[in-house]
Amino acid sequence: QVQVEESGGGLVQAGGRLRLSCILSRGSSLGDYSMAWYRQAPGAEREGVACMSWTGNDDRTSYRNAVLGRFTISRDHAKNTLYLEMNNLKAEDTSMYYCAAVHRTRVGYDACSIGSQSWYSYWGQGTQVTVSS
Question: Quick check: helix, strand or coil at residue 118?
């Protein structure tokens, strides 16, 4: 079983920034997985924020419109870590943020999804982001 762990959440003032990190358990290489960030606010459905996959050195990313231009998903294979850089945070960004992973053999090698939770086999327990206005 692959374990996923997020960190970096916290309380930030509107207009501020945070960087979330996601690591996979030992023995699981980030390069073998398509990755995503989802979020869920109280009383709302879980929604995709950004996702990332790759073919060789060619990265493929998708973002939901609400965060486009403000959030950036990236990876550091040497650190086996996925990041979500969040800039110009808004109160509406307040959510529990989840990191998700699926082995690339189960989906297209260059594919990822921010529209279907069922794509992902492994989920972290979340890190809370709260934005005050």
Answer: helix
